[in-house]
Amino acid sequence: MTSTAATETVSAARTARTDSGSETTAARTRRPRASSDEENNGNARYFLAKANGNDGTLAFDREMASEGEALVEALRLGVTYYEIQEYRVVPDFSGRKPLLGKEAVNSK
Hints:
By secondary structure, the chain is of the alpha+beta class. Helices cover about 25% and strands about 30% of the residues. The chain has a domain at about 35-108. It has a three-stranded antiparallel beta sheet with strand order 4-3-5, with helices on one face. Strands 1-2 form a two-stranded antiparallel ribbon. A two-stranded antiparallel ribbon has the order 6-7.
């Protein structure tokens, strides 16, 4: 024996009625994800790792133009890739305690 009241309660939770009497369903919207170039302001440089550089030291091979290009080439060649960001230290002596900050260097 099924209860119709329980079925109506479940369907009412999924849909919302507007003042005009029509039903609308709640849909989730996704925020677009910022690309990696927007996150680091385009200051990153991408390098493929050398294929035989397994002795624990960093060994760069080719520089790639974008992270997407580095991803594809690293997958194709079976190597890892490096993302390098360069910063300059900026001291701030205006307060009671000196503060050190960082400023991105655009070295391209």
